[in-house]
Amino acid sequence: MIRLDDTCMKNSPMQSSKGNQFKWERDGVWYKADYTGYEGLAEYMVSGLLVYSNLKNTEFIQYQTEEIGYKKVLYRGCKSPNFLPDGWQLITLERLFKNFYGQSLYQSLYRIEGVEERARFLVEQVELMTGLKEFGSYLSRLLTIDALFLNEDRHMHNIAVLYDETGGYHYCPVFDNGRALLSDTTADYPMEEDIIELIPQVKAKTLSSDFVEQLDAVEGLYGQKLSFSYDEKIISELLEKEEYYPNKIKVRVREILLQQRRTYSYLFRENRTIK
Same structural domain for residues 59 and 120? Predict the structure, then answer.
């Protein structure tokens, strides 16, 4: 358990559609308190399972769960290393587009008919604004993660690039998956409800409200860029190692992950290398 106070509380440039969690930064570590359910466990599990993907370790941020004492309340939550080098900025795509064009990227995207056309527009604009190459591949990886893990919070305020002190842009490692795995038990996905009934209710927010539709679009345009090798044993081992969340929540998370693994079984072909 770590005790934190107002002196290290931070505001994040990344915005959630469900409000903002308490966040702190101390000694190069970020801490986030659960806000609507078990966001910390979701971060821990998603990042733990990304280890069993073809992503490099530098392409995503790993989270550990933590108990956080703040004022008179003990929160569950998570911690992760601060990955932003000194002098660098994290800039959301919404802010980047607004700075360039004086318009909302989200509104501009949704004036376009067709999910593939939206994907093309987004990729072309990001590459034009930043000079980055292969943003389509990056987007395909992000939307694969969102579909597999049911991350409902990947909107234009929640995708970002890194900006260095010389004016250059860089890809941001994958982070902030706390709204995955039906973690909002307060309002949208109560613990007592059947996950089979709840899963179809989760809506995407990037190019479409349908995870499959937007993933099909980017895979069709830019290819399948992500594969996984984890199985039921690895899921169970990760959950057993975690020390703060009750077993009832862990059982539910395990069931969700196994159900999603069945749904997206094509991502789990053995020993496949995707470039």
Answer: no
